[in-house]
Write a structure and sequence with these properties.
heterotrimer, A mainly alpha, B alpha/beta, C mainly alpha, A: mainly alpha, 1% strand, globular, B: alpha/beta, Rossmann fold, five-stranded parallel β-sheet, 40% helix
């Protein structure tokens, strides 16, 4: 009845590679690189690359205080919900030739899972009962609305490009199409979409200049203000995982055509490209910009970034 | 295994929360100077946190005015264990030049156990760095004591 | 065994009879009144259940001629009741909504007076909407619409002392009457042209195409039902009426009264006029639907009143339904009907939660509520399910239906190479995110956040109010998890009878009647949605959850403790930069000022348009009707 081998492999995929463990490790690694490189950009030595890992373990060892006003179940459940939804995403992102789970509409599933992780942050902040968190979640929500539009446009453009006459929302098909033709990033009609996606990544991860929701000097990290100990650690881990997922998504959407044939080599190349993407769109942007206001952020995403993505969509629609 | 890792991490990633209790701002800018490229406290993992809930080390500067005393005590209570309290400058230790004023309630020891006190008006960034680093080591000890 | 063909007319009669009995026997004794109401609604639910197998599983059509006036020489002269799978899908909604509402009202309405009138009107409303969904006669449909409108108006103003109740009822009366008159006008013209009022026969006679007269009639009837479905710009009375009516009635309004309009739209455009191949009608419906969903949700973001906010969301969700119907594909219709069903469930649930909050605290003003999750944990739980469902989060039903709608819209865009439909897809996704935003605001303002001093002794809603909430929450979850079952036994039969009118015509007018007019069947494949296998997903979630739990449990010694709060200890107080809670100056009730600031111009125009003046609203209605009728003539051929 049950195929035990398959179930074991499924568990392996979910828990180790490319699921939870892989995402965590790569995420923490990317976050470490980000902190190191930005330190070098500012002529500092900077923390070791394993610093985010230290942070995570330290937080695990601290007390977790549930504030008197908080709704305990939601307050403690939210980080876990976010973690679960993020751990699942990598299963659908092809690491070049290899996908753990594939379906017909992975892109939409990924879109929804990312939204769920955002909702988890908002729910947690909301349940903590702090008015600072109230301001934080409203900003988080507006940020979400801001990047969702260009994100959808980019995904539609990719789907149309791959599908041709019909529409393909399968990540596998996107990867296969790129293996047959060229990488999406080398299609000139897709370049605006790629730039738009690069701008979406820092907003999705919550990095400067789009970190209005968690502005630590202004509203005390917004939704996270009342979190401490392990719960905070999981949220920090979630941010690192998001880094891995978003850059990985970019890699497989726009550089999905690279295949060596060996899965471990693929994985290494994948992480390397993701790291480069991180350096470009998170570290550099972080180093040279200051935080935007929330209304500027909204305007920026709905005009310039959406415009870029829209240009690609129209070009693709015209068959270019 | 995890215990050891966590204990080690406690010393490697101390997050600071800074409370100014009526300081003249001299110590505060010296603390910020520690984070600048010249001294770069981040290489030890120090980071300024936005909320006392996130903090490991609470840095207190200033002579603790009557207005700020209650706020200070309340905020210190909100920091999760294990935590360290570091006072910067002479003010929290003795009241410094403000000693004897009707509106100053130094020393800090009256309200909370101070783990490391960095004296000076103002202390050099090097001294602050050393104080903070010592506090990080104390953090590790406290963490070890927690699970023993 | 009872003859299945008698059931439709029996259930309608039962409701009306029960209404009169309540007025006669139940006005003094509450027990009798409650007994009659519950028996009537339960009996209707059971009768609906009995019809499920023959209609949905066997694909039959239940038909009954009043007074045995069967067609003579191929002309239908009597009133016929005819329940096909489409009508039945909506009948189920009506029966279920009314049953849940009557159970809920036991607890919810126990502080009100003149409850006999309430129950009378309630049963009139149920009977009329049941009649509307089950009748096969277009004039009978109009009669039922009239009863429905007037019962609704009276129920809107049931708590007449509440501020704005009479005003809302008046608006409802004016706009609703315009809609009814349009229906009557259209029906009269149809009768003049086709000499019959039976919808099956009309469908056959109109099969060849529309003459100018019938096109005008179509426009008028379409507008009439659009008014009943409250699509923009006919939505204005809905926002007021849902807000001031008792929650058990708001739920009925959102659950079935506007569904009656949706049902009418589907019945007219897909079956009687068979106009879905015409591009103008598609674009008309899709544009109206998209505008509706967008305006509904943006207006909801600006609301400060719980039920009024829900009302605008209701409008917005109906926009999805109308858009999906207007796509003109079987998949779109599946999505539309599915979303209509889901909307009944989750919006009903949300209204019931709002009612529970009102029952417990006496207010629905979002600025005066807060922190209720500790006092009303069960209501909070149900509300969160409802909010997740309406925002389209998996694994709830709203996700499944919204996804089908996106899929249908995009397929349509690719198929017709029309960019408009791609915009519709994007608009749908964005509106969904905005819905989520709005519900986060409500959750934050009502259930989380700060508990107000005057709500310290608030209690959880009584069991009789919670049971309907539990049932609806369970259905919201099941609809998302087992959408394939829902599709197979509920949606597919409804869609396939809607697309194939031959059986519908023949059942009423005799075999072979449809063939005379060239009506033939087209086979419809059941909609495929293989995109999302919720059970696998649930398993995935469970596995990861278990893994997380194991890690957490085994690591108990290494991990820092989780400390539960002690109230007086400052350690557990919320952080206000060291300040005591009561002196904190941090506001933050208006969560979306940043968003609204960007859209200041839009909101200025919109609040200007929603002036609250019934003359203005009547003007919008007339303008929209003129546009619809003009479209019929200018672009029809």
């Amino acid at each position: 009845m049950f195929d035990w081998m398959n179930i074991l492999w499924g568990l392996f995929y979910i828990l180790v590679f490319p699921g939870a463990l892989f995402t965590c490790c790569v995420g923490l690694f990317l976050a470490g690189i980000d902190r190191k490189v930005i330190a070098h950009m500012q002529k500092r030595i900077g923390p070791p690359i394993v610093q985010p890992t230290y942070d995570f373990f330290k937080l695990m060892g601290k007390e977790t205080i549930v504030p008197a006003r908080a709704n305990k179940l939601v307050f403690l459940g939210a980080p876990i919900l976010g973690f679960v939804s993020l751990a699942l995403i990598m299963l659908f992102v092809p690491i070049f030739g290899f996908t753990a789970f594939s379906g017909d509409a992975d892109l939409i599933v990924i879109l929804y899972l990312i939204t769920i992780s955002g909702v988890a942050l908002i729910a947690g902040g909301s349940a903590s009962g702090s008015p600072y968190a109230g301001i934080g979640i409203s900003r988080e929500m507006v940020t979400m609305m801001s990047y969702e539009l260009p994100f959808v446009l980019v995904l539609l453009a990719v789907a149309k490009k791959v599908g041709g006459a019909s529409l393909v929302f399968s990540m596998d098909a996107v990867a296969a199409w790129q293996a047959e033709n060229t990488c999406m990033a080398f299609q000139w009609s897709m370049i605006p979409a790629a730039i738009a996606f690069l701008l979406i990544i820092p907003a999705e991860v919550g990095m400067q200049p789009f970190d209005v929701a968690e502005a630590e000097t202004e509203i005390c990290e917004g939704p996270l203000i009342e979190y401490s100990g392990a719960a905070l650690g999981v949220f920090k881990l979630n941010t690192a995982m998001k880094m891995c997922i978003m850059t990985g998504l970019f890699t497989s959407l726009f550089f999905g055509g690279i295949r060596t044939g060996y899965i471990w080599l693929d994985a290494i190349v994948f992480v390397a490209i993701s790291a480069v993407v991180t350096l470009i769109c998170i570290t550099t942007v972080h180093a040279v910009t200051a935080r935007l206001k929330i209304e500027h952020l909204f305007k920026f995403f709905w005009t310039i970034v959406s415009g870029l993505a829209g240009v690609s969509l129209v070009l693709v629609w015209l068959g270019l | 295994m995890f215990n050891k890792l966590i204990d080690k991490s406690a010393a490697k990633s101390p997050w600071l929360y800074h409370i100014n209790t009526g300081s003249c701002n001299g110590c505060d800018i010296e603390l910020v100077a520690c984070l600048t490229p010249r001294y770069d406290a981040e290489r030890f993992g120090f980071k300024l946190a936005g909320s006392p809930r996130h903090a490991d080390i609470v840095v207190v500067s200033g002579p603790i005015t009557s207005q700020s005393k209650d706020r200070l005590v309340r905020t210190l209570a909100q920091v999760p264990e294990p935590k360290c309290v570091v006072s910067i400058g002479s003010c929290p230790q003795s009241g410094n030049v403000f000693k004897g004023s009707w509106s100053v309630e130094a020393p800090l020891e009256n309200y909370v156990h101070v783990d490391v006190a960095v004296a000076g008006c103002t202390p050099k960034p090097e001294a602050i760095m050393e104080g903070l680093y010592k506090a990080a080591l104390i953090l590790q000890k406290k963490r070890e004591a927690m699970h023993k | 065994m009872i003859n299945i063909n008698y059931l439709p007319v029996l259930s309608v009669m039962l409701c009306f009879l029960a209404a009169f009995f309540i007025e006669i026997f139940g006005s003094k004794i509450a027990g009798i009144r409650r007994f009659i109401t519950l028996v009537a609604t339960t009996a209707v639910l059971i009768m609906t259940g009995l019809m499920f197998k023959p209609i949905m599983l066997d694909g039959g059509i239940v038909a009954y001629w009043m007074g045995n006036w069967e067609p003579v020489n191929g002309y239908a002269i009597g009133i016929g009741y005819e329940v096909d799978a489409l009508g039945f899908a909506f009948t189920v909604l009506v029966a279920l909504t009314c049953w849940l509402s009557s159970v809920y009202a036991l607890g919810y309405m126990n502080r009100d007076h003149h409850m006999a009138h309430y129950d009378t009107l309630f049963l009139m409303l149920e009977g009329s909407v049941l009649g509307l969904t089950m009748t096969g006669d277009i004039f009978n449909m109009f009669v039922m619409i009239e009863i429905m409108t007037f019962a609704s108006v009276a129920l809107t103003a049931f708590r007449a002392k509440q501020e704005g109740a009479l005003e809302a009822a008046f608006k409802y009366l004016v706009i609703g009457s315009i809609g009814s008159s349009l229906n009557l006008l259209g029906i009269a013209m149809l009768y003049g042209e086709c000499h019959t009022l039976n919808m099956a026969q009309l469908s056959a006679l109109l099969y060849g195409g529309l003459t100018p007269t019938t096109a005008f009639a179509f426009g008028a009837i379409l507008a009439g039902f659009a008014v009943k479905a409250y699509i923009v710009p006919f939505h204005t009375p809905a926002a007021d009426a849902y807000a001031v009516a008792p929650a058990s009635i708001s739920m009925v309004f959102a659950g079935m009264v506007n569904k009656a309009g949706v049902y009418g739209l589907i019945r007219m455009v897909w079956i009687v006029f068979r106009a879905m191949d015409i591009k103008t009608i598609q674009i008309l419906l899709v544009v109206f639907g998209t505008v509706t969903m967008f305006i509904g949700v943006t207006m909801a973001l600006a609301q400060h009143e719980f039920k009024r906010l829900l009302a605008f969301h209701s409008i917005s969700q109906i926009g999805y339904v109308v858009t999906a119907i207007g796509l003109g594909s079987a998949l779109g219709l599946t999505g539309g009907i599915f979303h209509a069903v889901n909307h009944t469930l989750f919006k009903g649930l949300l209204f019931l939660c709002a009612g529970a909050v009102f029952y417990a605290t006496g207010t629905t003003n979002l600025d005066k509520l807060g922190g209720l999750s500790k006092k009303m944990p069960k209501t909070t739980f149900c509300f969160l399910i409802g909010a997740a469902a309406i925002s389209g989060l998996p694994p709830f039903n709203g996700f499944a239906s919204k996804w089908i709608i996106y899929q249908a819209a995009y397929e349509k865009a690719v198929e017709s190479n029309n960019f408009l439909f791609a915009i519709v897809t994007v608009a749908g996704l964005i509106v969904s995110v905005m819905t989520l935003a709005s519900f986060i605001k409500v959750t934050q303002a009502v259930f989380f956040g700060q508990l107000h001093e005057e709500h310290k002794d608030v209690k959880e809603a009584p069991v009789s109010m919670r049971i309907p909430m539990y049932i609806m929450s369970a259905l919201c979850l099941c609809g998302g998890l087992f959408y394939n079952v829902v599709n197979k036994f509920f949606l597919h039969p409804a869609v396939s009878t809607t697309v194939n009118v031959e059986a519908y015509i023949n059942r009423m007018m005799g075999d072979g009647y449809a063939a005379q007019y060239g009506v033939t069947n087209i086979a419809v494949e059941p909609a495929q949605f293989s995109f999302w296998n919720p059970l696998v997903w649930l398993a995935l979630f469970a596995v990861v959850f278990c893994a997380a739990a194991i890690v957490i449990l085994t690591g108990k010694r290494t991990r820092g403790k989780v400390l539960t709060p002690v109230n007086a200890d400052p350690k557990y107080a919320t952080f206000f930069s060291g300040e005591q809670e009561e002196f904190s100056q941090v506001g933050g009730s208006d969560l979306f000022w940043g968003f609204k600031k960007n859209w200041a111009g839009y909101y200025r125009v919109m609040t200007g348009l929603h002036s609250g003046n019934v003359n203005d609203y009547a003007t919008y209605t007339v303008i929209a009707v003129a546009i619809i009728v003009l479209c019929m003539f200018i672009f029809m051929r």
